[in-house]
C-alpha cells in the first residue's frame, strides 16, 4: 500500500504540475488511486505516451497498488475540459 | 471488491513469488525469457483483437476488465475476431504481459499486434471516437453510421 501524501510527493517531484487531484478509491487500504494530472510535460504527447510516461515515473508506487487510474491533460486541454463542464 | 478472490491464490500460495513479481517489474523486460516472450508474442497475434483481462468476458473478475469488455461489446467486435486471455488463470502470463507491454496494469488491449492501452485509454478513446476509427481502420468492424453506437448501447 501507499499513502496519499507519498503519492502526491512522488508526482510533484517527478514532473512540473499545474493541477493535481488524487482520489483514494480504496476505502482506506491505500491500494487504489485515481488521479487527474495537468502538466506542461504532456505537451506534444498522445494519451498512450503520457500514460507510459507517468507509469514510468511512478513505477515504484504503482507496483505497490492494486489499481491506478489516470487522466492526463496539458494546461490548455484542462482549460477546455473545465469550460466544457460548465 | 474482488480483492479476496483475486489476491488469495498468489499471496497465500507463494508470497515470495509475489515479491519477486514486484521486483521483476522494476527490472522490467530483462527477466522475461525468450520462450515466454515468444509465447506472449503468439498470443498477441492470435487474433485481430486481443484482450488480456482478469476473468472472462462472461465473468469478469475486476471492474476495469469488465469495462474493457463492455466497451468492445458496444462496438460489436465480432467474437471470431476477438480473443481474451484470463491472466488470473496463468500467473506467468499475468506477470509476463506486464513486462512484455511495459504496462503495469490489466486489462491490456492489442489490435493487430499493436498495444493500444489499458482501461483508461480504452474508455477515453471510446468517448472521443478514436476507438471506433481504430477498429474500422483495422478491419475489425465495418464502417457504420453514427447511430449504431446508440443502438448497441441500448441493446
UniProtKB/TrEMBL annotation, chain A:
Molecular function GO labels: 2 iron, 2 sulfur cluster binding
InterPro entries: BOL2, BolA, BolA-like_sf
Origin superkingdom: Eukaryota
Record's GO cellular component terms: cytosol; nucleus
GO biological process: one example: protein maturation
Signal peptide segment: none
Family: Belongs to the BolA/IbaG family.
Protein's recorded name: Bola-like protein
Source organism: Lentinula edodes
From TrEMBL, chain B:
GO BP, sorted A to Z: [2Fe-2S] cluster assembly
Signal peptide: none
Molecular function (Gene Ontology), one example: 2 iron, 2 sulfur cluster binding
An annotated GO cellular component: mitochondrial matrix
SUPFAM superfamilies: Thioredoxin-like (SSF52833)
Keywords in alphabetical order: 2Fe-2S, Iron, Iron-sulfur, Metal-binding, Redox-active center
Glutaredoxin domain boundaries: 49-116
PROSITE patterns listed in its UniProt record: GLUTAREDOXIN_2 (PS51354)
Listed name of the protein: Monothiol glutaredoxin-5, mitochondrial
Protein species of origin: Lentinula edodes
Amino acid at each position: 500500500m501507499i499513502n496519499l501524501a507519498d503519492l502526491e510527493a512522488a508526482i510533484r517531484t517527478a514532473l512540473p504540475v499545474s493541477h493535481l487531484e488524487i482520489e483514494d478509491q480504496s476505502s482506506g487500504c491505500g491500494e487504489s488511486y485515481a488521479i487527474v494530472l495537468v502538466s506542461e510535460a504532456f505537451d506534444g504527447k498522445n494519451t498512450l505516451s503520457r500514460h507510459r510516461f507517468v507509469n514510468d515515473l511512478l513505477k515504484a508506487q504503482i507496483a505497490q497498488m492494486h489499481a491506478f487510474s489516470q487522466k492526463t491533460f496539458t494546461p490548455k486541454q484542462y482549460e477546455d475540459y473545465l469550460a466544457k463542464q460548465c | 471488491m474482488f480483492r479476496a478472490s483475486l489476491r488469495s491464490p498468489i499471496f497465500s500460495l507463494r508470497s515470495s513469488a509475489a515479491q519477486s513479481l514486484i521486483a521483476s517489474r522494476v527490472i522490467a523486460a530483462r527477466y522475461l525469457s525468450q520462450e515466454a516472450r515468444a509465447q506472449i508474442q503468439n498470443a498477441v497475434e492470435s487474433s485481430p483483437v486481443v484482450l488480456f483481462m482478469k476473468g472472462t468476458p462472461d465473468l469478469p473478475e475486476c471492474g476495469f476488465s469488465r469495462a474493457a469488455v463492455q466497451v468492445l461489446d458496444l462496438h460489436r467486435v465480432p467474437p471470431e475476431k476477438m480473443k481474451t486471455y484470463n491472466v488470473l488463470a496463468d500467473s506467468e502470463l499475468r506477470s509476463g504481459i506486464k513486462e512484455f507491454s511495459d504496462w503495469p496494469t490489466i486489462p491490456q488491449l492489442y489490435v493487430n499486434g499493436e498495444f493500444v492501452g489499458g482501461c483508461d485509454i480504452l474508455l477515453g478513446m471510446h468517448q472521443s471516437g478514436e476507438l471506433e476509427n481504430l477498429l474500422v481502420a483495422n478491419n475489425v468492424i465495418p464502417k457504420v453510421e453514427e447511430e449504431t453506437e446508440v443502438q448497441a448501447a441500448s441493446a
